[in-house]
Amino acid sequence: MCTEKTLWEKAVEFHGHVCPGLAMGYRAACEAMERLAQERAEDDQIVAMVETDACGVDAIQVITGCTFGKGNLIFRDLGKQVFLFGVRGKDEGLRVAMKYGALKKFEPEGWSELRKKYFNGKTDEEEKKRFRTLHEQLAEKILTVPLEEIMETKRVTIELPPKAKIYETRQCYFCGEGVMEPRVRVREGKFACLECAIMVKRSK
To answer: In the chain, N or C: fewer CB atoms in 10 Å?
Structure first.
């Protein structure tokens, strides 16, 4: 019998496994969609600006429909678990930020120590299994605790980036590959992609 997957199951399927980071992005995205009264974006009417490239962004893509390909997923490399959501045509958005240290009280016993060992490649098979179990337990906590215990949400005035543009493609003289026009540079009087332009600078 075929049953419809839940949004969480779809996020897990897309990401590949259950983890706390995915759960964070899921909670943030669901809150934004509810507060902004939106359905999943088929086009680019919803915009998500994320300040991390960690696991949670996968859940945000699944729930909101924001993607790099549609130009409505914007990555700001600030290293923070902060997510900003907006709707085109409106100047009010929602900012969702993880509260620093908020997850400490929900961490299963032994999770933090095993996490360090696991990501340093120092766990045996039994420890790996134990870590994955604890990892999923923490994710479950993030999914079920009251949102205000782990995240701060607030309405903000937002200026959304312009819609994605389609640019002409130029051929790099040096490698022969195509490159979008705004990224073209000039090297020795000829069109060069960024990689070929940088290579000549490094060789000098």
So the answer is: N
Provide the domain count of the chain. Answer: 2
Domain assignment present for 110: yes
pTM: 0.84
Q: Is the residue at 2 inside a domain?
A: no
Residue 95 near residue 154 (C-beta atoms within 8 A): yes
Residue pair 85/46 in contact (Cβ under 8 Å)? The answer is yes
Which residue ranges in the chain fall short of pLDDT 70?
1-3, 200-204
Burial (Cβ within 10 Å: 0-12, 13-18, ≥19) of residue 104: exposed
- CB crowding 39-73: b at 16 or more within 10 Å, else e: eebeebbbbbbbbbeebbbbbbbbbbbbeeebbbb
Bridge partners of residue 95, in order along the sequence: 84, 154
